[in-house]
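A sample follows:
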Amino acid sequence: MPDVKHLRKGLNIRIKGVAEKVTMKMPLSATISIKPSDYFGFVPRLAVKPGDRVRAGDKVLTDKNKPEISLTSPVSGVIKEIIRAERRELQEVIIAADKEIEYKPFTRQDVNNVNRDMIIQALLDSGLWPVIKQRPFNLIADPAKMPRDIFISGFDTAPLAPDIDYLISGYEPEFLTGIDALAKLTAGRIHLSVDGRYPVPAVYSNCRKLTLHEFTGPHPAGNTGVQIHHIAPINKGEIVWTIHPQDVILVGRFFMKAITDTSRLVALTGPVVKRPMYFKVISGSSIAPLIAGNITEENVRYISGNVLTGRKISLDGHLGFSDVQITVIPEGNYHELLGWASPGFNKFSASRTFWSWLSPDRKYVPDTNLHGGRRAFVFSGQYESVLPMDILPVHLLKAILAEDIDQIENLGIYEVVEEDLALCEYVCTSKIEVQQLLRKGINLIIKEIS
């Protein structure tokens, strides 16, 4: 039986618009986007130019620092546009997709009859290697290093998060093949955590290569970083790898079919969505066909991901490669006179500021209004109330502001990434951009180490 860990700290943000468990298979998107920003630490070098033709699985970008790591095209088609920002920073590569995908063929390999080096090389060649992340710092895993363990979260507690069990349903053979491949990449264990409120799915309980753990409690109990902290914390000098269950399916599918097929389920969620549901799409697809005719308002924010950690995109924008959720909420570009003095029956609050606390099961329609600007960064105890980890988040962030490397290391920088402190940003009275500040600290440590 898996061990059960009960977490008390955290916060469930109750929002209307959870996805109904119905899936619509979408036609192939007219354009596909590849974004280097989906991968922290990836320094892109173009392997193509506008007008070049590519197949699904052909290299589009390589990492300048580690040329063996590449991003490959999810579809066949023609390189339509290369989008750069100021100082010519590469932001996106847009591919005009064919109506039917032509896949680059790879050599089919039985994961049970190949060694670790062969699996790594196959994933590098396919372009799927970047779905494996490395902690600390949430970088693309270094293929030259051996992880202590591999961690997978089998449930997601973020606002309106898709049901992981539903994402995997029907893809159990691919998932188990992916686990077989991952098991050869570590000398340690593959830890998989599930929601302790429900029975353990058979696909997990029947797999002997998984070490199961059960967690109960509010968000961020479903975060991989929180689970690592409570199962086997990362010490200085150690590394572990993490991977999302849908990306495990991509790995397994590659070894079963010998093609780079990045189709996945994505949940369209949010209070202004007429019918929140799941869509089967290719990674990096345009969101416009999913949104068309399914939104109740015009002035809205489109988010690739969830409301805490997702990124704002435009209606003609594209999904992040590994994103499994699109959230649509009202924009908050308005001024509310004396909003703090109102009863707030329709406003969700992490404290008892508004009378809405009298309705503990009610779901709300939040918007993007910050309700104020930045203030003095003070100790309030708010961060600690929503972070079920044995670290001092305010002290850590202030050490980052001071650029005190020793203090940053001592206060737990190796254990956290942005999503772990996202709730701290949400409840912050001082309106501090916590996730942005934490990434600054991570970059400081990476620079110091290198």
Summary: The mean pLDDT is 94. The CA atoms of residues 147 and 240 lie 5 Å apart.
